Amino acid sequence: MYRWLLLILLVMLAGLQYRLWFGEANLRQVWQLEEKILEQRQVNQQLTERNKRLEAEVNNLKKGLRALEERARSEMGMVRKGETFYQLIEPESENN
């Protein structure tokens, strides 16, 4: 009787081992998927860093153009097309 029980348990163990190593979603596939997940995370990290650099560049260009325009207006007296430029001149003092 114990031999039959032992034999049944061994057959069940072999069946479970077969399923673990060769069946659907076996260990080899799980390991491959884990490797792919790690690779994808690295790619995602690189893309996130690239996006941050691009966002900083866009913000710099937006703010940089405003700063450049402001400087051109104040220091060089430049105006946009369709604008009218008024310059106020203070009178010279008589002490000169």
Structure description:
With 96 residues, this protein is mainly alpha-helical. It has a domain at 26-71. Helices cover 74% and strands 0% of the residues. The protein is built from two helices and no strands. It has helices at 2-22, 27-76. The longest helix is centred in the middle third of the chain and has 50 residues, at 27-76. The protein is rod-shaped. The N and C termini lie far apart (126 Å). The relative contact order is 0.04.
* Integer-rounded radius of gyration: 38 Å
H/E order of the elements? Answer: HH
Helix content: over 70%
Count of helices?
2
Uncertain stretches of 5 or more adjacent residues: none
Spatial separation of the terminal alpha carbons: 126 Å
The main β sheet shows up as: none
Q: Count of DSSP E strands?
A: 0
Average residue pLDDT:
84
Shape: rod-shaped
- Secondary structure class reads mainly alpha
**Range of strand content:** under 5%
